[in-house]
Amino acid sequence: MDDIEFFENKDLDLSNSMLIVAFPTVGLISSIVGHYIIDTLKLEEVGSIVSRFFSPTAIIHKSKPSPPVRIYAGKKICGPDGSCEQLTVIISEFMPPLEIIKPLTDKIFQWSKEKKCKMITTIEGTHAIGDRKEKNVNIFGVGSNSKMTQILKKHKIKVTKEGMITGVTGVLLYEGVLLKQDVICLLAEAHSSYPDSRAAAALLEKLDIMLPLIKIDPTPLYEEAENIEENIKKFMEQSKPTAPVSSSSPSQMYG
After folding, report:
1. Does residue 250 carry a pLDDT above 50?
2. Burial of 159 (0-12, 13-18, 19+ CB in 10 A)
3. How many domains does the chain have?
4. Structure letter (DSSP) for residue 128
5. Which domain holds residue 118?
6. Is residue 176 part of a domain?
7. Which CATH number fits the domain that encloses residue 84?
8. Helix (H) and strand (E) counts for the chain?
């Protein structure tokens, strides 16, 4: 735990915000969704997570170097009835090594509790079974308790009954059960051989419905899917010389 530190650039009020956790997964769904939300909603980089176990890599965005795990946040958006919504995003292009996943998730829970976040939502990809039809991407969900399961059902997200999820998301889910914390995992059925922007866009459609006050329009993602996929491929290729290959296996699930 002492080897993982949270650094905050600003002390923002994140109470009742939805904390989205996006580490690499099948089809790079989490990376695409996370970056799309950050860019389209113009979220501000408010902090980072640093550890000697993380990949020794600086992420350059808009000429600014940042650690491999960053924290972004948007402003609160309130409706006429007084209800408010806010998004906080923890994102990384690299999966942490296996030995640090448990202490990292413990730190995320601790920080989330300190900031009084409402719930944690993790973004994942799951291997498409057979030939997936581009216009019929299946989106699944897993909740840490009955309250989270009801949210999934309310928004017509298929609830996974049997399966296995590894990595950061897997630990967040089972610790959510043990610690009685609200955690939801959204999974998009994705191609595993390349970045799947179309599957990411389908997942964003569901997230948009879950956040009625925050408009997340996935249309541009559908339209620019090919360009986005090529850019991410180039980024991953460029990162190979300085990013050690993680021993972690990608998350997998079957519904």
Report:
1. no
2. middle
3. 1
4. P
5. 4-239
6. yes
7. 3.40.50.10900
8. 7, 13
**Amino acid making up residue 203:** L
For 99-119, what is the mean pLDDT? Answer: 96
Rounded Cα–Cα distance for residues 164 and 69 (Å): 25
Looking up tokens 């039809």, which residue turns up?
133
- Whole-angstrom Cα distance, residue 117 to residue 95? 23
How big is the chain by its Cα radius of gyration, in Å? 17
CB 18 within 8 A of CB 117: yes
- Please compute, for residue 26, the number of CA atoms within 13 A of its CA located in the half-sphere on the CB side: 22
Contact 250, 121 (CB under 8 A): no
Separation between Cα atoms, residue 250 and residue 166, nearest integer Å: 7
Can you tell me the distance from the alpha carbon of 198 to that of 194, in angstroms, rounded to the nearest whole number? 11
For residue 246, tell me if it sits in a domain: no
Minimum mean pLDDT range among 142-151, 152-161, 230-239: 230-239
Q: Is residue 150 part of a domain?
A: yes
User: Is the pTM of the predicted complex or chain greater than 0.85?
Assistant: yes
Tokens of 210: 């879950």
Residue 21 forms part of a structural domain: yes
Distance CA 178, CA 3 (A): 24
